[in-house]
Amino acid sequence: MSNVAEKGKGRLSSVAGQATSLVTRAAGAATQAASLPAGKAIDAARSLNPVQSAPTPVDGVGAANKLLRQLGISAFTPSLGLSTDLTLPVGVGGAVAGPYTPGIGNLNIAGISVNAVRRGEILCGFVPVGVFADFGDKSGLHVAWFNLNTLQGGLDAPLGGMIDTVLDAVKSHIKAAPIPAATYNTPINTLKRALSIVPSNGVRGGVVQTGPGLVLCAVYGTVKRGNATYFFFPSIGITEAR
Fold it and tell me: How do the domains of the chain map onto residue ranges?
């Protein structure tokens, strides 16, 4: 009996050590990003773009949590950060397991599942607090993950714009399914209307293949705001992938 207890204790120690390493590496990656150039060429190009819709602000952590809930995403711990304009940004990450499509729920067409997030996958999201123009390069945020059941993990999986991420995933699954083109215009338009609650405010999303199990996630990285770059340290949480 003592041998079983010792083996169990050793396994828990190993899992805890790897999970701690994941968060440490994510925090280190965010800190390293803060030391890189702020992408002045990209910022200059953005400032010359004459057609920019005014971004809708997410005013406070409560509003960020509400938006995530509306999308069916469970919120993580809030994230603090640093910025090149000497302010202290705040943001909230979160995740939802598949099969699921934010704004819709379980999306089926002609009895075939075409969800943005499939089984064995999770969708990680991030909502920054404040006003962020959502145009140009959207690749600054990343997610590090570790499956506590399979002991598999990954670092630096990129997040993109939330609306683009969801729509592109659903469209790719539709194209791969034996579904007549005439039958999917209506659900796609319905999905677009459901996603209209997402503001033009730097909201990010990304689908990650984790396999089933309890998945520890850390969302971190950068979001642009005009000529300033905001560096967010990890927003951490656990999601059960199915």
Answer: 2-241
Tokens 């999970």 belong to which residue? Answer: 19
Paired residues of 124 in beta bridges: 95, 206
Establish whether the linkage from the previous residue to 99 is cis, with ω within 30° of 0.
Answer: yes
Question: What is the reported pLDDT for 28?
Answer: 58
Rounded distance between C-alpha atoms, residue 224 and residue 149, angstroms: 36
Q: Which amino acid is at 81?
A: G
- HEC string of the chain equals CHHHHHHHHHHHHHHHHHHHHHHHHHHHHHHHHHCCCCCHHHHHHHHCCCCCCCCCCECCHHHHHHHHHHCCCEEEEEEEEEECCCCCCEEEEEEEECCEECCCECCEECCEECCCECCCEEEEEEEECECCCCCCCCCCEEEEEEECCCCCEEEEEECEEHHHHHHHHHHHHHHHCCCCHHHCHHHHHHHHHHHHHCCCCCCEEEEEECCCEEEEEEEEEEEEECCEEEEEEEEEEEEEEC
Tokens of 115: 């969800």
Output the pTM of the full model.
0.79
pLDDT block averages, 10 residues each, the chain of length 242: 46 50 56 44 35 70 96 96 89 98 92 95 96 81 97 93 96 88 84 93 95 97 87 96 96
Q: Which pLDDT score, from 0 to 100, does residue 1 have?
A: 46
pLDDT value of residue 9: 43
Select from 85, 61, 87 the least CA-distant residue to 75: 61
Please say whether the beta carbons of 202 and 128 come within 8 A: yes
Residue 156 token pair? 């630096």
